[in-house]
């Protein structure tokens, strides 16, 4: 929110149109409920494109893993750990841009323009990666990819948190995060088609076509997103697809859910609130540990290839584990929202993943190892619950949330620079030491979530005691 803005309801201007007495509408429970349903229906339709954008975001970032199966390293003469460096350097770009990007988005309040522009840029960078001639070309392209991709995920979380209440965030975050899971599945299907159909067309290697085709698709979708993505509720552009009353409901319900009024908020005040909040730094470190717990996904095609199949079959059998994980994530997030529970949902999904890691380490039997892939992908259910939990635990003011979400996401980004080195080729084909790292990190991840839960329990108890002494009505309570 810009520093010069006044109270959001006052800033609506033409909300009090001749057709509506807005204040009466907001006080009428039946009319309010009807408007809220209409608002969420329109909003869900527009927000749906975030899932598609995240699919392309992940595909453009991870298609290097698929390219590796068809001569990427050999053609570019990569040696030693150079491939791992190319894989991780994209996240160095993320480190530079995450927080400035989210603060800028919070200031301008125009995700439709900003996120679409970022998408166009990373699409072009992906296309140019297909023209790389050596290690340094790929290194530069991947770094630039990180710079322009950095704004998307944290920005998407910020956008979702501007429109949805706490008991709606888990499911909506799941739909966004499912983009990653679907990308692992559809990315393999798309890649197998490109690799099979376009190898050596015009004398160009199939892996080069992979970057060109997928990058071009990203640019085309970005132009569509420009007209579909909503801006923040207080933006005048919201009146183009919402009635004045629906827009007033959108603002009122978020204010009521967070039990705050953010008029007079300054951007840098929110920034300092975030960087001086113990919870933000703890969540940042916890997400970094999660990155190690789920690091197998960087090398998933390589792991599946250990089953002994060729490149195309390998990519095709990568699909079922991720599609299964997508369904479980959606169901789990819905239950998490309804029960207002985060920690136990995280613990359960991580426990299932640990069983998968242990199975994969214990045997090279094809059937058992393939089943283990289904189990280990369930770790991503915990990620959805975790990000929803993080968002509602640092929810006000909104400029604090913008900084906090970017900073928390940076914890995972920083870890992602390192985790590719936990899967060296010399540790294959069973990768027992790599899976050992995943198991240790998973246990530590759950422990850190438990400590965070205990801290929030303490804050809730303190608030309850304070209200009892002062005879105050119930205020904000953290979800556990």
From TrEMBL:
- Cross-referenced SUPFAM superfamilies: MFS general substrate transporter (SSF103473)
Q: How does it sit in the membrane?
A: Multi-pass membrane protein
Keyword Transmembrane helix attributed: yes
Q: Does the keyword Membrane apply?
A: yes
A cellular component term (GO) from this record?
membrane
Name the keywords, alphabetized. Membrane, Transmembrane, Transmembrane helix, Transport
Domain (Major facilitator superfamily (MFS) profile) spans: 46-457
Molecular-function annotations in GO:
transmembrane transporter activity
- Subcellular location as annotated: Membrane
Which ranges does the record mark as transmembrane? 43-60, 80-100, 112-132, 138-161, 173-195, 207-229, 280-300, 312-331, 343-364, 370-390, 402-422, 434-452
Q: Which Pfam families match?
A: MFS_1 (PF07690)
Name the PANTHER family on file: PERMEASE-RELATED, TRANSPORTER, PUTATIVE (AFU_ORTHOLOGUE AFUA_1G16690)-RELATED
Q: Spell out the protein name for this chain.
A: MFS general substrate transporter
Which organism is the protein's source? Answer: Rhodocollybia butyracea
């Amino acid at each position: 929110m810009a520093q010069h803005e006044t109270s959001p309801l006052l800033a609506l201007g033409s909300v009090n149109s001749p057709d509506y007495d807005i204040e009466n509408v907001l006080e009428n429970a039946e009319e309010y409920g009807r408007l809220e349903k209409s608002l969420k229906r329109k909003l869900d339709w527009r927000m749906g494109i975030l899932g598609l954008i995240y699919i392309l975001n992940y595909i453009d970032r991870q298609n290097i893993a698929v390219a590796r199966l068809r001569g990427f390293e050999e053609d570019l003469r990569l040696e030693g750990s150079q491939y791992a460096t190319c894989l991780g350097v994209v996240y160095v770009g993320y480190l530079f841009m995450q927080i400035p990007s989210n603060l800028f988005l919070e200031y301008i309040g125009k995700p439709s323009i900003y996120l679409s522009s970022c998408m166009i840029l990373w699409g072009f960078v992906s296309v140019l990666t297909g023209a790389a001639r050596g290690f340094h070309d790929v290194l530069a392209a991947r770094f630039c990819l990180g710079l322009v991709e950095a704004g998307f995920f944290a920005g998407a979380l910020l956008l979702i948190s501007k429109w949805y209440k706490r008991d709606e965030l888990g499911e909506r975050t799941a739909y966004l995060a499912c983009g990653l899971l679907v990308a692992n599945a559809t990315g393999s299907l798309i890649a197998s088609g490109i690799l099979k159909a376009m190898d050596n067309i015009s004398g160009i290697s199939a892996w080069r076509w992979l970057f060109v085709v997928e990058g071009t698709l990203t640019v085309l979708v970005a132009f569509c997103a420009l007209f579909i993505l909503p801006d923040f509720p207080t933006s005048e552009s919201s009146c183009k697809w919402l009635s004045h009353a629906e827009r007033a409901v959108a603002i009122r319900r978020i204010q009521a859910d967070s039990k705050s009024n953010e008029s007079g908020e300054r951007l840098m005040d929110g920034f300092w609130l975030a960087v001086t909040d113990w919870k933000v730094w703890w969540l940042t470190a916890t997400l970094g540990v999660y990155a190690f717990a789920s690091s197998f996904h960087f090398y998933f095609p390589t792991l599946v290839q250990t089953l002994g199949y060729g490149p195309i079959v390998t990519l095709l059998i990568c699909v079922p584990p991720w599609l299964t994980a997508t369904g479980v994530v959606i169901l789990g997030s819905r239950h998490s929202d309804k029960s207002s529970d985060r920690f136990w949902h995280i613990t359960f999904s991580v426990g299932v993943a640990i069983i998968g890691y242990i199975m994969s380490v214990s045997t090279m039997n094809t059937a058992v190892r393939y089943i283990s892939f289904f189990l280990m992908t369930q770790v991503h259910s915990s990620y959805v619950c975790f990000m929803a939990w993080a968002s509602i635990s640092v929810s006000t003011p909104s400029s604090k949330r913008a900084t906090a979400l970017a900073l928390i996401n940076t914890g995972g980004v920083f870890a992602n620079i390192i985790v590719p080195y936990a899967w060296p080729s010399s540790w294959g084909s069973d990768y027992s030491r790599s899976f050992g790292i995943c198991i240790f990190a998973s246990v530590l991840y759950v422990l850190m979530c438990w400590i965070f839960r205990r801290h929030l329990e303490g804050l809730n108890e303190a608030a309850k005691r304070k209200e009892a002494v002062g005879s105050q009505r119930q205020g904000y309570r953290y979800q556990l």
